[in-house]
Design a protein that fits this description.
CATH architecture of chain B: Orthogonal Bundle
Largest interface: A-B, 23 and 18 residues
Number of helices of chain B: 12
Helix content of chain A: 10-25%
Distance between the termini of chain A: 37 Å
Number of domains of chain A: 2
Largest sheet of chain A: 6 strands, mixed
Distance between the termini of chain B: 39 Å
Strand content of chain B: under 5%
CATH topology of the largest domain in chain A: Rossmann fold
CATH superfamily of chain B: MetI-like
Largest sheet of chain B: 2 strands, antiparallel
Oligomer: heterodimer
CATH class of the largest domain in chain A: Alpha Beta
CATH superfamily of the largest domain in chain A: P-loop containing nucleotide triphosphate hydrolases
Radius of gyration of chain B: 23 Å
Number of domains of chain B: 1
CATH architecture of the largest domain in chain A: 3-Layer(aba) Sandwich
Number of strands of chain B: 2
CATH class of chain B: Mainly Alpha
Chain lengths: 365, 272
């Protein structure tokens, strides 16, 4: 990544009247990266996008694009284009004229328009669709027209406001890959807004997790998933089991705690002290489940009863009730160890995960 | 049978009984011979349509279309900016109610009220005299201008509402996208807003053009004897001359013209 960020955001704030949408945001966006703003609806991610595109102006703070402060520049004067949620194609124009729109507005010579539009349509694999009406296109094709229309001016940054949310599951999967490939090919910076965490994990170089106008965590998909910085991130991205624990004893490398009456050994976080309350997080897919009759060694294993079995195709998901009353979710893949998974309801099972696969977070509120 | 199937059936039978059937009866009557005692009787004849091939009727028809066209034009001229204005204010429904309230009073009564405004010693002339803008009252009433004013006033809401409706369905995101792509305000209007508002305009024109030709009492009241339009002709043929087949034939002729016009505008709308 280059040293100077393409977009610099410093102490950015936005409020409508007394209703504060964004609180003191600071972060950088680098050239050529695929950045995703992920958060529940109403968390301010679309507002941030509008501030970058220029449809809204910030109350406080600075937005710099290419080292130039753009706070008060209108959208057309920024080297940024937006793909809107419903694509906002012009229904009264055909595909060609939609893509040509920004060139037509500048009264560019027709020959140049034709060659540029053809190049853009080729890029999104819609070469033969120039004469089609917008209404005749499928959702995925409309999406590609919107992209062609936006990239014809070769903007540095493309903003995408939940562009896949109206597509069905199969098409969404396909478009995720297409968008990602296109971004790599164009070497353009994509800022992508979504509330779908799976989409964010699949596509992004970096993810910003938003909650109530604040940034909870910025990091690579791996970081976000494996090392959530707080409970919010851990719960928002993927499923996780959370235990409230107290450190009972420790060595240089390990801490020991009790869950549901069983002593559990964990890797010691550098800041842990005896008696500290903490959250222990473990993902369902990291938990191994053993039948009670096949178990030999009981150390580090929680005991519980299966209260729910869900077959999900690639995995089989269990809810296991511990003696403490807490329910633990587990998710097991069918692999060479588990060719035949035959759990029974109300069966007693033992749960275990490799030491160190858990995440320990300081106790919140 | 569930209620889902009942409602379309009710609507279809309503249209069959109260719209299609009278239209067929009208065409039927236009092909019969007038009779004083039984209104119409056999034999079937096309003579009433032949009667329409007449220089006098041609002049009335042209004048009617011209006046209706002018009415539509002025309604459009006033309604388009007005609809745009409603679109951009916060109390939309209040303004729409204010437009509609006068129409809870009969159009006939409001037209008589216009007589009081326009007459020799009416409100407008009195005000202008008091302000010394004129020395003798203007002859406002019983002119084509009075008829035009009356028609525009009566039909304006039928232009405003469809245009407003059409404008309202334009996606704000489309406007944003045009701005994002570098269009100026004028370019946004010409290239994005106007083409998408055309459907509303066509609907408005259809809503105004037909009544402008057939609101016979407005030329009667505001135009005096000078202003005979197709609507008045049809009224005369039915009520004063008791010649139902001739009236029916004139009506049918008008309907055919309007159906053709409707067809053209629809096919244009389909292309868009």
């Amino acid at each position: 990544m280059p040293s100077t960020p393409l977009i610099q955001i410093k102490n950015l704030e936005k409020a409508y009247g007394k209703h504060v949408i964004l609180k003191n945001l600071s972060f950088n966006i680098f050239s050529g990266e695929f950045l995703t703003l992920l958060g529940p609806s109403g968390c301010g991610k679309t507002t941030l996008l509008k501030l970058i595109s220029g449809f809204e102006t910030p109350c406080k703070g600075i937005i710099k694009i290419d080292n130039v402060t753009v706070n008060n520049l209108p959208p057309q004067k920024r080297n940024v284009h937006t793909i809107f949620q419903n694509y906002a194609l012009f229904p009264h124009m055909n595909v060609f004229e939609n893509v040509a729109f920004s060139l037509r507005c500048k009264n560019i010579d027709n020959q140049i328009v034709i060659s540029k539009v053809h190049a853009a349509l080729q890029l999104v694999e819609l070469s033969h669709f120039g004469n089609r009406n917008i209404q005749e296109l499928s959702g995925g094709q409309q999406q590609r027209v919107a992209i062609a229309r936006a990239i014809i001016n070769q903007p540095k940054i493309l903003l995408l406001d939940e562009p896949l949310s109206s597509l069905d599951y199969q098409l969404r999967k396909k478009m995720q890959m297409e968008l990602k490939n296109l971004q790599k090919r164009l070497n353009m910076t994509f800022i992508f807004v979504t509330h779908d965490q799976e989409e964010a994990l699949t596509m992004s170089d970096r993810i910003i997790i938003f909650n109530q106008g604040k940034i909870e965590q910025i990091g690579s998909p791996y970081d976000i998933y494996e090392n959530p910085r707080n409970l919010y991130v851990a719960q928002f991205v993927g499923e996780t089991n959370i235990f409230n624990i107290t450190v009972q004893s420790m060595t240089n490398e390990h801490i020991y705690t009790k869950i549901s009456g069983v002593t559990i050994c964990c890797k010691r976080p550098f800041n842990a002290c005896n008696g500290d309350p903490m959250h222990l997080l473990i993902r369902p897919e990291n938990i191994s489940v053993y039948h009670a009759d096949k178990i030999e060694n009981l150390t580090n294993k929680l005991v519980g009863t299966i209260i729910d079995i869900t077959y999900k195709g690639p995995t089989i998901d269990l809810n296991v009730l511990l003696e403490s009353g807490q329910i633990v979710a587990t998710s097991e893949f069918f692999d060479e160890d588990h060719e035949k998974i035959d759990y029974k309801l109300h069966e007693q099972v033992y749960l275990e995960w490799p030491v160190g696969w858990e995440v320990l977070l300081p106790y919140e509120h | 049978m569930n209620t889902k199937n009942i409602f379309p059936k009710i609507i279809v039978s309503w249209l069959l009984i109260f719209s299609l059937l009278p239209a067929i009866m009208l065409v039927g009557i236009s092909l019969l011979t007038p009779d004083i005692s039984s209104m119409v009787h056999l034999p079937v004849t096309f003579s009433h349509y032949k009667n329409l091939i007449d220089p006098l009727f041609f002049r009335i028809a042209v004048r009617s279309f011209f006046l209706a066209g002018l009415t539509t034009f002025f309604c459009l001229l006033l309604a388009y900016p007005f609809a745009f204005f409603i679109l951009n204010i916060s109390h939309k429904s209040l303004v729409i109610i204010l437009i509609l309230i006068p129409f809870w009073t009969s159009s006939l009564i409001r037209t008589y009220a216009m007589v009081d405004l326009l007459k020799w010693h009416g409100t407008i002339n009195n005000i202008l005299l008091k302000l010394h803008l004129i020395s003798t009252p203007l002859s406002l009433l019983y002119s084509n201008y009075a008829v035009l004013t009356g028609l525009v006033y009566n039909l304006l809401p039928f232009m405003i509402l469809p245009i407003y409706n059409g404008m309202q369905s334009i996606d704000q995101k489309c406007i944003d996208a045009a701005r994002d792509l570098g269009a100026t305000r004028l370019q946004i209007f010409v290239k994005v807003f106007w083409p998408q508002s055309q459907k509303g305009v066509i609907n408005g024109v259809l809503m105004v053009l037909l009544p402008a030709m057939t609101l016979f009492y407005i030329p009667n009241i505001l135009g005096g004897a000078k202003s005979i339009l197709i609507g008045n002709l049809i009224q005369n043929e039915f009520i004063f001359l008791n010649n139902w087949p001739q009236g029916a034939a004139t009506s049918t002729f008008l309907s055919i013209i309007l159906v053709i016009f409707f067809g053209i505008s629809q096919s244009k709308g389909m292309k868009n």
